[in-house]
Structure formats: C-alpha cells, structure tokens
Amino acid sequence: MIGAAYAAEEAGHGDGHGGGTGLPDPMHQFEIKRLINLDVFGFDASFTNSGLFMVIAAALITLFTLFAMRKGALVPGRLQSVAEISYEFVANMVRDNVGTAGMKYFPFIFTLFMFVLALNMLGMVPYSFTVTSHIIVTFALAAFIFIGVTIIGFWKHGIGFLKFFVPSGVPFVMLPLLVVIEVISYLTRPVSLSVRLFANMMAGHTMLKVFGSFVVALGLLGGWAALAFMVAFTGLELLVAFLQAYVFAILTCIYLNDALHMH
Amino acid sequence: MAGAENQSGRPKGGRGTETIRQRLDALEGKLATAHGRRPPPEEREGRGKAMGQALRLATEMVAGVAVGGFIGWALDRLFGTAPFLMVAFLFLGGAAGIMNVVRTAKAMQGEPMPGQHLRNATDDDED
Fold first, then answer.
1. Which of A17, A21, A105, B62 is buried most deeply by CB count within 10 Å?
2. Tell me, what's the ipTM?
3. pLDDT digits (tens, 9 = 90+) for B37-46
4. Does residue B107 lie in a domain region?
C-alpha cells in the first residue's frame, strides 16, 4: 500500500507535476516553455507557449470579426449580432467615458478589450495557457497605455498638462508636498492596472487547480463536494475573465479622458 | 400544431388580438411571480461585488506604497542618501495610496458596477 503511494508520487515527480505531497503543483500551469528557440544578438527571443497563445488570440479575433461580418447584412444573423454588439459595447464605453473626442482612439480600445478578453477566455479552455496570468505581460500592456496617454496629454495641452498635478484650492505652503503625492499617485496607475488583471487571473487559475486536485485526491466518495464547487467556481471565473477585460478597457478610457480633458 | 395548443391549455382558434392580449397579460403575471421567487440581484451578486471592490481598493493602496518606496530607493541610489529618501517616499507613497483609495471609493459610490452597466446597456439597445 505504502509502496504504491510512493510509486505514484515518484511518477508525479517524473512529469513535472510533483509537489512532494502527491498532489499536482498548482503553479505548474504558469510555466513558460520554449517552443522555437530564437537568439537575437544575445537576447533570448524564443517563441514560447505564451507567444503562441497571443498569436492564437489575435488570429481568433481577426477571423471571428471578418467571418461574422462577411455578409454585412442589414438585418444581422447570430454571429454578426455578436460582432456588432461587441462593437457597440466598446463604442458606448468610449463615448460615455471620454466623449466624442475619444472616438479617435476607439480602434485601440476595441483591440485592447478584445485582445485581453480573448486571452482571458482562452485561459479557461482546459490544457491551455493563460497569458494574462503573467505580470510582465499585463505590465507591458499597462506601461504602453500609461506612456501613450501621457504623450497624448502633453501633445494636447503642451506644458500646461503639468497643471494636472497641481490640485486647486490648497494653501501655497502645502503645494510642494501635494504635487509630489499627486505625481506618485499618477505613477501608480500602470502598477494598479496591471496588478489587478494579473492577480485576478493567477489567483483564479490557482484556485481551480487546487480544487481540481482535491476532486482527484478525495476520490469517488468525497470528491463530489469539491466537484460541485469547481463547477460553480468555473462559472465565476468566466465572469471574472470578462469583467477584468472590461475593467482594463474602462480604466484605459478613464485615463484617456484625464489626458484629453484634464478633469 | 393543434396538439401543442391543446397541451398548453389555450382555447382553440385563439388568433384574435383580444385572446393574444389576454395570453400576454397572463404570461406577464406568471413572469412576475417567477421573478418574485428569485432573490433580488443585489443579494446574489453582493458578495462577489464586494470582493471585487475590496481587491481593487487593496491593490490601489499597495501600489501607492510600492511605487513610493521604489522611487525613494531609486533616488537614494542616485544621490547616495540611503535610506532617508526611501523612508520619506514610503510615507508619501502611502499618502498617494490613500488618496487613490478615497478617489476610487468615491467613484464606486457614484457609478454602478461594471456588470450592471453592461446589462443595462444591452437592455437599452433593444428599444
């Protein structure tokens, strides 16, 4: 009996799932694997599973929108309705939060929303890889947005954009302190934006894995409770996948609004 | 067709506008009682919503302190004044974090949650 358990544990170690307790390692799913080794002037630019899923997401979005809109019918069918609803959804989001001046940036917000949504949803497919569960990916997205929005702000208002950091109606003595705090507050934007998406995705997928291993470990007798929880939690994770893509896009809109209109 | 009509207990030959109106009214009454049996949406979503808001406020606070600390650390390295600037900027970062939390909380009280907004938007699109 003990021998069998030990053998199972050893086997678990063999395929990289081993955590020492016999349960699969919940962090194993976030591992980056090199698919095609590439070395560009000393930089490791390998094509990884993360890159593969980004390509799949981009291809899926492109194919979906092109295929759904191939007829361009006046009375849309089912697929065309989905494409039109997602367009309207993002267009309304931009119009409500930035105003008509922001519609110039609609293509970017739409691409961003669809990309994050597709990555989050692809992560819900079993055996797939969740790209947005890596902070470097979400931080790169957030930093790009942050730098872009700051450039737009300076481009629209010139040096007057610096007034954004000066709160109105405070005593002159307090100004230096408050300006420093305002600047730090502005600099936290990319951090909180990226951490929110990354933390939600990673926590959710770790939970799924942990409870999935409970189902197996408790077996036919006790596994049902964990399985019921898994079903409910998968539904919640689908909601979170959508909600986080939405929050990411809407915060981009809010930041863009600050840059364009300065409150 | 006829079988289906008998099953649902409708009067035969109910094609007139009057009977259709009656059936619609009856259906609306049934829908209302069905809706009444379910708990109100706030109760169902209350916990998830509160968790999301709490997580958002927590990241806002932590991000302030982390960014403040990082700026202080970088300035210390630049001027060789370790650890004074880092200590000062940790506090400034905490202040920035609290300011962000207050701002986010204010925005939360004024606006409906993301999911609610979507449902209203899709409902409104139909009319």
1. A105
2. 0.72
3. 766 655 556 6
4. yes
